[in-house]
Design goal:
The chain is an alpha/beta fold. It has two domains: 204 residues, no CATH class; 381 residues, Rossmann fold. It is 43% helix and 15% strand. It has 21 helices and 19 strands. The strands form five sheets. The chain has an eight-stranded mixed sheet, sandwiched between helices. Helix 2 crosses helix 3, helix 3 packs parallel to helix 5 and helix 3 packs across helix 7. It is elongated.
Amino acid sequence: MNQEIKGNLAKLLATENLLVQHKAVKTASFDVHSRMLTLPIWKGLSSRVYDLLVGHEVGHALFTPDRDMTDCGAPKDYVNVTEDARVEKLMKRKYLGLRKDFFEGYRQLQAMDFFGIDNEDVNAMSLADRVNLHFKIGHFIDIKFSVEEQHIVSLVDQAETFDEAVEAARLMAALHSNDEQSVEIPLNGTQEGSNSGSSSPIEQQADEGDTDDSGDDGEDVNEESDSSVGGSGWHDSVTTAEHFSDALENRASTNHYDENTVIEIPGMKVEDLVVSNSDFLKVCEEHYSHTDTSIADSEFAMYRKSAAREVNYLVKEFECKKSAAAYARTTVSKTGVLDTAKLHTYKYNDDIFRKINVIPDGKNHGLIALIDWSGSIADVSFNMIKQLANIAWFCKKVQIPFNAYLFTTEWPREHTNFRATPNTYCFNSNFSLINVITTDVSAREFENQLKYLFRLSAFFSSYGNVPVFYAANALGYPIGCQLGGTPLSDAINSLHTVMPYFRKKYKVEKLNVIVLSDGEAGAGGFAGDIQSYDDPESYLVRQVEGRAQLRNRNCGVIHPVFDQGYLGNMKIYIDNVKISFPESNIVCFRMIDNRDVGAWVRTASWMLGIEDTDKFRSRLRKERTMVVGKGLGYDAFYLITTKSLSLDTDFEVDNNASKAQIKSAFKKSLGNKSVNKKILSSFAAMVS
């Protein structure tokens, strides 16, 4: 049984985003306050029966008020009988397609003796039991009622409100207690000695054209003796309802390994996850004030000058595309003012009014960059930061708000309890987003940000390698800026906090997110439902694995289980962000070493539909950058070989070079430039 499909059925029937969960519990329940519908994991039941049970529970969610049934003036079990009949009638009236599910579902349940009547004389049962059977399986068995009892059946059938169902239950209890003097049973216009006023059990017989309404000819009423029908005495319980409940409980799994744990992304404060830009600048200033950075700053100035041409070209390209998009949205409207130049044509031209071109405003864009600051990024960090600097200069020139964050596990910070709420995603206690670039600062501070990152990345790319420039490996790094782990899942899930903050601060309509990383990560952990032994305010952390599902409470969506490997599990988190923020683009630039291409392609082939992995691998090695499909969750996913980030774009040839050598060098330079500016040009196309 596909639990996700049945959960969606419940939401559709309820016409709201109910929270639906399947748990290893005995009975179904609905919390009217949290709008949480909990369904057991029933074993051995058909899809028809499952639909019946889901429809029944949703009926209570829709039509049963939040009232204490023990304080209604009638036995609770009696109220359950009359209320069940009422809500099932209303559900089948609201959703005509449920009628066959109820009919066939109860037929199957009767065949499995869920009501415990196989060896029983149903007409010797109590009135409440017979009413219960009448409205559930009344056209599969013959059930008799006395004249007075038939009036009760009519009241139950005619109940439209909860109070009317309660009143019918009270009268049924009073009649069954033989307290005739304390109650007057309204006849509702029915004729004594006939049950013609009774409708079919839950309208089922009318729903099925091949089944006649039982009791229409009056055969169900024993007019000779009321005492020959039903038992006597006060019965608070309804035996058939108890049998039905016990049978369902026996079919409900109590094995917690059958159920999935549903987790959610907790709402976090920005300061719990983000290290401010000012704090980053402060530690950098403190560190580099004791370091000779003259050579690094000279190299930075040269790179800024060389990158200016490409950035300026893309700015012009961006403005052209932006103007073209605005022109495409332009409409012509009449002003209502006469055009004097056309007045002389009034005899043969109806349009003599001035016109105006209306250009609607485009959407305001913003950009967030998440930068992998893990140990494996060291060799390519220098070239990656240069790409990031290009984006920063571009955004500054075209006035697009831009924030860049390093996601890391090394920044020293005060402890934040991420384990305080059970069944919520648990961020790594060492996780931080360091806001290293922001465009809403002065020109001097903006350049300092890029200088610090330039020095920082130059050091790590030179550490243990040939220095990227002289003395780069002597620059060191500020406290908290060393390379660490790859908390990619934490970074993606932090967008639920960062994106609303960014939108509110910069008032952008469409937010673009780029992720620069050289690897994948696990699905992380979550706070379980067992309290920590040493901290009563925390819960033990469990690994997000194959029996965990992510729920988006705002949208009511429950994602598939986390059993799809690194890429598949990360796709769940990305899909969850895009559901919460549909007006956003999320693009990944995955840097990959040539030696790792084969393993990555084999891992991703089933998600991307890659049939010939060898052909894909050879194409990537040749082209050095590829755009793969959307099977990984991102709006675009770029594979970029790490070697291509360090390609020389200078056009240099010997003085005595031949035409062929000049042509070859020129083509190589153009090709390298195309690959080198892939990240920036892709973003420019995305926001234009």
